[in-house]
Amino acid sequence: MADLFSPFEPDAPEPPRRRFQAVPFRLLLPNLVTLLALCAGLTGIRMAIEGRLELALGAIVLAAVLDGLDGRLARMLHGTSRFGAELDSLSDFVCFGVAPGLVLYMWGLETLGSVGWIAALAFAICAALRLARFNVMLEDPNKPPFAGDFFTGVPAPAGAICVLLPVYLELVGLPRLVASPAVAAFYCLAIALLMVSKLPAFSGKRLGARIPRDKVMPLFICVVLFVAVLVTWPWTVLSVICVAYLAALPFSVTRYNQLSRAYEARRAHAHPAELRPAPVAGGTQDERPGPLN
Fold first, then answer.
1. What is the pTM assigned to this prediction?
2. Could you tell me which residues come within 8 angstroms of residue 232 by beta carbon, excluding any fewer than 6 positions away?
3. pLDDT digits (tens, 9 = 90+) for 64-108
4. Taking a C-beta distance cutoff of 8 angstroms, is the pair 81, 291 a contact?
């Protein structure tokens, strides 16, 4: 009878409906780190405009460190998302395309007039093109299994750190004749072309995915020592890192060609089922996880 004669309340409001579902924190944390990297890149632009180049360089380096952390966090927490991937691309363009170009322009390219601006502009445009190509290549189903260990072209964070080498050299104490604005402009264009090239570069993404127990303590000590040296002599260390990275590119090309020839030889004689890409840590063989890099 209670169902037949239910109370009649025409003016009673309907219970409120939840419009948005709760989002797990593991999905938010990588995106928060990406936003911190974006804040660092924008702060670097401000410091460059105010003429505080050392702080501007520090902000860009901090953005690069945070950009590397958000990817690892996303893989560890299984917090990948399409939203995070787009956010990371936008952040990378500002931090590693716009900010380094402006810092280099404020440092000395402005003395070249339009030529210096064209060099800075070309670097930012190449960074955008590199990131756009990066997002498209993530969907390539025919990528060989070893390709996940390499980037196609110099990645944007590495390009941003390397393109500022003339500024590091001057802060070390070398005269500007060693890295004059004219030389810096040609160097900037060269790094920009390396970013949009098809040059295979070591990704280092899987490096350190599994650390043997007996190597944990030495690793901690090495990291602490590296940070101490970087803080004590930042411009010298960054200069050495840039030169070493650029010098390692030919070895990266040689290694990629070796793996490619071995893969093609195995593919010519193997069963198709044996050529399926093997799963990797994190569940993806993309060059970067969904929310990030």
1. 0.78
2. none
3. 999 888 877 777 777 677 787 788 889 999 999 999 999 999 998
4. yes
